[in-house]
Amino acid sequence: MEFHHPKRIGDAVGLLRRQSSLAVAGATSFVRPSRAAHLVDITGLGLDYIRADKKTVRIGATTTIAELEKSEVVNGLASGILRSACAGLADTPLRSMITVGGDVSCKFPWANLPPALLVLDAELSIMGRKKREVSMDNFMSSRLGRGEIVKEVVLPRNLKGRGSFVKFSKTKTDYSMITVAAYVERDEVMISQARVAVGGLCKPRRLKILEKGLVGYPADPSTVNDAINIHVPELAIPKTIFASEDYCREVLGVLLRRTLLEVLR
Amino acid sequence: MEITCKINGEEKKLVFEPHEKLLHVLRREGYFGVKDGCSTGECGVCTVLVDGRPVKSCLMFAAQAKGKEILTIEGLGSDDSPHLIQLAFSDAGAVQCGFCTPAMVLSAKALIDSNPDPSEDDIRKALDGVLCRCTGYMKIIDAVKLAARRTLEKAEREAEYE
Fold it and tell me: Which is the most buried residue in A10, A258, B24, B154, by most CB within 10 A?
């Protein structure tokens, strides 16, 4: 095995295009010995930044969760949904290691940022031989090409609605068993936009069928209850080792109700 | 491979295999205050400060310490001249078996350096990455409160002399 410390993005991409090459940032996913022939440390590329302009907030891939949690501009987005996602993410020493890019691109079911970024309609900027942009939604159902890594997360800044994130786990710092994130915009008394995402039980993904039961309906608790009562019994709940299907469905319904009532408050 | 970094204020050359984690390299170099508990990032007893931030050294690759400043418990104080936080742990009776103590003390140092007047919630959050096997968290929280108060008092006394 060889360990590399590239200083330029072009050099990092070149190293990552080699056979059996892996990017390292926070290193917290390297619990078991890695069989990669090349480890490429991407923390020297200057990607630890949070930059805001009028329309967007750009978060560099090697920004740590601890740094993200402290950012005022990020905490001001959609009633602080990302602060909640960060606060419930692992523990203090791990939050000062885990990076935004790692939490997003490892696609672990228990990751907290992906559900929140899904409902914020985030875009990812990918670097490789060519630059490309991809929506968070499409990113979760596709794969990175050889040599590609996430360069930054791009969030819209003019979010008018409210967001909420909740994590369910055995202890506060343990892996998330179920995560739910919601973002809702209202137009007078009606819900004009709704995005809901779930993780923990599965790779984080949008619940578009539930969103359809919210948009265009009155922004009140009965809409939330109806949508949950109709759609949650229909959802496919994957088998897990920690609880029965009935239990997971019950808890998922409760968490969805809590987050949606919170954003409609 | 070979890197240089600063450990407890001293310039050091470290030689290791590229796959090795910082924890194992530090222990091989004789820093036995860095404890080897679970080696999987769960228990936090291997916590050291890297550029002032608490990190779990069992997960960080030793290669990533290149050019960084590392503080282990050996660099904080000694038997003859313990650090204020170490004295507070002793005075508050916050040490039972002692296995988690270096990580608790270093976590407390990172907290007090960035937040001189922490609330009990801030303290609980700062220690949430380190498990105590003796299950004696109350005394540890008391010790950090005491250490924070004494740090503030010391800063005030020093300000008066100036």
Answer: B24
* Cβ–Cβ contact B44 with A under 8 A: yes
List residues bridging with B47 in a β-sheet: B56
Q: Which domains does chain A have, with CATH numbers?
A: 2-41 (no CATH), 50-156 (3.30.465.10), 169-264 (3.30.390.50)
Q: Backbone phi, then psi, for A148, in 5-degree steps?
A: -90, 140
Structural domains of chain B, ranges and CATH numbers in brackets: 2-75 (3.10.20.30), 84-161 (1.10.150.120)
pLDDT, one tens digit per residue, over A68-101 is 999 999 999 999 999 999 999 999 999 999 999 9
Provide the chain B residues 122-161 that lie in CB contact (below 8 A) with chain A.
125-130
CA–CA distance from A252 to each of A54, A78, A178, A179, A209 (Å)? 36, 22, 7, 8, 15
In the block, tokens 């691109």 appear at A105
Question: How many CB atoms are closer than 10 A to CB A162?
Answer: 18
| pTM (2 d.p.) | 0.95
Classify residue A121 as left (phi > 0), alpha (psi -120 to 50) or beta.
Answer: left
The reply to whether A174 touches chain B by the CB within 8 Å rule is no
Residue B49 β-bridge partners: B54, B71
